[in-house]
Amino acid sequence: MKHRIAMWASAGFVLACGWIVYSFVVSPEFLITSLRQPLVEAAAFATCPVSYAGRHFALYFWWIPPINAATYAGFGLIAEMLRRTARAGLAL
Fold first, then answer.
1. Which among 5, 68, 84, 89 could bridge 12 via Cys, Cβ 3.0 to 4.6 Å?
2. Do the beta carbons of residue 18 and residue 40 sit within 8 Å?
3. Are 73 and 3 in contact (CB under 8 A)?
């Protein structure tokens, strides 16, 4: 179970790093116009939930990957607990 939760956290870390690289690579004019598009904004909020908090107060770039990794670890913990509960229920 620990390995699966670590995989969830790693996925969250990599996704947040991907969004940071995207924001550094894209020009500021394009970034402003593209992040306001509903599809890109929805993808950012779905894959990096901490980006929603960044709209309300300032976050440093180096805070985002660890916070997102912790968020994904929490999601993974919940998912693994539900998976175990479902398996235990099927065994009875």
1. 68
2. no
3. no
What are the tens digits of pLDDT across the range 29-63? 776 676 667 777 788 888 988 877 777 777 888 88
Yes or no: say if 45 and 52 are a contact pair by the CB < 8 Å rule: yes
Instruction: Quickly count: other Cβ atoms within 10 Å of residue 73's Cβ.
Output: 19
Other CB atoms within 10 Å distance of the CB of residue 6? 13
Handedness of CA 59, 32, 14, 47 (dihedral sign): positive
Of the candidates 55, 58, 57, the one whose C-alpha atom is nearest the C-alpha of residue 45 is: 55
Cα–Cα distance for residue pair 3/64, rounded to 1 Å: 22
- Which stretch, 42-46, 67-71, 84-88, has highest mean pLDDT? 67-71
Residue type (1 letter), 63: W
CA triple 50-64-81, angle to 5 deg: 60
